[in-house]
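Weekly sync, protein design subgroup
Attendees: M.S., D.O., the rotation student, P.L. (late)

Item 1: inverse folding check
M.S. brought a backbone from last month's batch and wanted to see whether the design step gives back something sensible before we order anything. D.O. pointed out we never logged the input encoding, so this time it goes straight into the notes. C-alpha cells as presented (133 positions):
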C-alpha cells in the first residue's frame, strides 16, 4: 500500500472534501472512516464487511475525567475518539507464558463458529440487495 493517499469524501448531502492522508494518521477524519479503494475494489464481500466492521470498532465516544461520555458543548453531538484493538500481544509471549484474559477471549471467539455465515453478508447489505432487484 502507498504511504500517502489522496482521499475524497462525499457526504449524503453532496458536499465533497478532498485531502491527503497517510497510514500513520488516525482512521477517523472529520467523522468519516476512510477506506483504501484499491483494496476495497478487489476484496470479497465478506472481507469488505469485516474491514468496515473492524474500522467501526475503532470509533468510540470520548469520556471526561470522571468516565462519563463527552458531548460537544456547542452542538450536543457526541465527541468521538479512536479506540485501540482489544488485544495486542506477541505470539511468543502467549506460547511461553499462556494467554491473558483478553487474549483468551480472542482465542475463544476464534474457536467458536462464525456468527455471520458467508451467504448472509449479501443478504444483509442494502447495496447487494439493490443489485439483486
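Designed sequence read out in the meeting:
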Amino acid at each position: 500500500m502507498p504511504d500517502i493517499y489522496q482521499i475524497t469524501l462525499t457526504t449524503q448531502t453532496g458536499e465533497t472534501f478532498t485531502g491527503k492522508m497517510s497510514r500513520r494518521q488516525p482512521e477517523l477524519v472529520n467523522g468519516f472512516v476512510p477506506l483504501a479503494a484499491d483494496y476495497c475494489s478487489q476484496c470479497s464481500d465478506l472481507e469488505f464487511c469485516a474491514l468496515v466492521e473492524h474500522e467501526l470498532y475503532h470509533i468510540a465516544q470520548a469520556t471526561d475525567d470522571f468516565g462519563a461520555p463527552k458531548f460537544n458543548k456547542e452542538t450536543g453531538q457526541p465527541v468521538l475518539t479512536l479506540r485501540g484493538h482489544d488485544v495486542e500481544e506477541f505470539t511468543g509471549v502467549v506460547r511461553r507464558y499462556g494467554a491473558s484474559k483478553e487474549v483468551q477471549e480472542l482465542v475463544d471467539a476464534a474457536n467458536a463458529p462464525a456468527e455471520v455465515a458467508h451467504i448472509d453478508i449479501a443478504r444483509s447489505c442494502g447495496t447487494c440487495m439493490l443489485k439483486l432487484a
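Discussion: Residues 36-59+82-125 form one domain. The first strand starts at residue 4 and ends at 10.
Action: P.L. to compare against the previous round before Friday.
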